[in-house]
Target: Carbonic anhydrase
Amino acid sequence: MDWYYEGERKPENWKNICEAFKKAENTSLQSPIQLCEKTTEKFIYQKSLATRYQLTQFETSFFNHTVHLTPLANEELNVLFFDYKKYILDDIHFHLPSEHQINDESFPLEMHLVHRSRDNELLVVGITVLPNKEPANLEKYRLDSLALNPRISGRGLFVPVDVAKLLPLKMQYFHYTGSLTTPPTIGPVDWIVFKNQTYMRKGLLRAFKENVGKTNRPLQPLRNRTIYLSD
Model:
């Protein structure tokens, strides 16, 4: 079913498009949300977070209104361990502006690193992005061309990306249970959103904005759930 970020089929009306979208939205806690240090619970017992990312070849594509990167190599090259459970990186994609807000602040772009466990459980890492004059990791691997020509039909560009270098230098993170942010917005999804930002050159951010456009779902009600902040 077709859905959009503006017009009659904008996010506020996704649940009216079809029964599957309605069920997903009504039966799970939804994302994105406001993440505020003052209202979070600190981890009493620190849940372990570890990543094992390597330089990997990705294939680009354009669907669900944004750019996606899909790893081509052995799936074991890019894994994340959270609370001693292993998740494999499935997809990287981009939202403009950021979907989550951190301490009432929005950011020009948010990257989502979508991971899946062997039991088909979802964990998404959210990384908010600020502009920087210096080239960041993505520019080294021809993502400029991708941003300027996002609507690639068929097989896309092949780009090597060192996923570890997409992460912020400071790894403090929020953790909560939510949903996917595109239809059907199913849950539960474990979310890890880094408190600190990574950087992208202003020109590339501008190219994403001009060629991809607005792709963020509005903030969703917190409802009765606890947001955690790591030490």
